[in-house]
User: Which sequence fits this backbone?
């Protein structure tokens, strides 16, 4: 099975401050943003990250799923795409 790294999601405590930091200080380009849901996708060159308010993880992860996590420590998520076998 082959996998390809796609992006890193940062589950942050202060969404707006982090969004401004990556956009204004580090120069990442905003690809998509939804400030109501506190979710933003940013990119610079080959690097893509997403920022998400970690306090909203409970609504993001389907409540019927049996997934154990602590929203206070779920800081970084690496996402991969399955390319096949």
Assistant:
């Amino acid at each position: 099975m082959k996998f390809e790294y796609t992006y890193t999601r940062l589950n942050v405590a202060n969404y707006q401050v982090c969004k401004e930091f990556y956009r204004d200080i580090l120069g990442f380009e905003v690809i998509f943003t939804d400030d109501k849901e506190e979710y933003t996708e940013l990119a610079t060159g080959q690097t893509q990250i997403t920022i998400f308010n970690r306090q909203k993880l409970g609504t993001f992860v389907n409540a019927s799923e049996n997934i154990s996590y602590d929203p206070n420590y779920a800081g970084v998520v690496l996402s991969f795409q399955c390319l096949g076998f």
